[in-house]
Write a structure and sequence with these properties.
Blueprint lengths: L2 E4 L2 E8 L3 E6 L18 H4 L4 E6 L17 H15 L4 E6 L1 H12 L4 E7 L9 H16 L7 H12 L9 H6 L4 E4 L8 H10 L3 E4 L8 H14 L5
Parallel strand pairs: 3-4, 3-5, 5-6, 6-7, 7-8
Antiparallel strand pairs: 1-2, 2-4
Helix pairs in contact: 2-3, 4-5
């Protein structure tokens, strides 16, 4: 089981295939881990491994990964893990693909290290709507309380600050509209269509980002084969020229 460690953080990851690297950020909210890909409309660890070096990971404190929790944590904490994993693997440039919360992880990675991300797939990106703030807070609280049982020194106040930093803002929570408007990274957006993944968020990202493509109908059985083909072709077309 490959595990990358830095300080008190342990990140579990798996690799599939060979070629140009793709770093995956799985669905699952705060429980984002590799196992969630198996229940997605398509599993990139299987569908993309013939053409790429696919790297999947469990986020800290999800799946087989672990790390400390503090009141200062937020999206930047996870971005630090992502960049450190690339450094550990000796990867200078890669594609990223994120499902659900992974869409916001992907955008955070692009903002922090734009020169390292050649293209991005955002699948069911999360975003704020008039009806879902409390849903995100409840999802975070359920995850946090499960961890708190094993961490008696972890306070409700610290967890609340962490939660508010994750889900207390707007848009896609992690980056601003201004950033997306300025982002030149090619993006293929596989639209969301439910309360956690509002269709309006997918459309807004596509409207703001200068090099974004939006696919609205992509996940039903009759079109999933075409979706996988489009994703593969999109990623191949944006591989850096050697």
């Amino acid at each position: 089981m490959p595990t990358f460690k830095r300080a008190d953080v342990s990140i579990y990851y798996e690799e599939y295939g060979t070629g140009y690297p793709i770093l995956l950020f799985a669905p699952g909210g705060m429980r984002s881990s590799i196992e969630f890909w198996a229940n997605s409309p398509f599993d990139p660890t299987k569908e993309l491994a013939a053409d790429f070096r696919v790297i999947a990971m469990d986020q800290r404190n999800a799946g087989k990964s672990s790390g400390p929790i503090t009141a200062d944590d937020g999206w930047h904490t996870y971005t630090g893990d992502h960049i450190a994993l690339l450094d550990h693997l000796g990867i200078k440039n890669c594609h990223v693909m994120g499902g659900c919360i992974g869409g916001s992880y992907s955008l955070g990675m692009i903002e922090a290290a734009p020169q390292r991300v050649s293209a991005a797939i955002l699948q069911n990106p999360i975003g704020l709507s008039p009806r879902n703030r409390e849903m995100f807070f409840a999802m975070f609280d359920g995850w946090a309380q499960a961890l708190k049982a094993d961490r008696p020194k972890l306070t409700d106040a610290a967890l609340r600050q962490f939660r508010d930093r994750m889900y207390g803002t707007d848009f896609v929570f992690n980056v601003s509209r201004e950033f997306v408007r300025s982002c030149k990274t090619p993006m293929l957006i596989l639209s969301g269509n439910d309360d956690y993944h509002p269709k309006e968020t997918s459309k807004e990202i596509a409207a703001l980002a200068p090099n974004a493509e939006l696919v609205e109908n992509w996940k039903t059985p009759d079109v999933i084969g075409a979706t996988v083909k489009r994703v593969r072709e999109f990623l191949i077309s944006h591989m850096p020229k050697s």
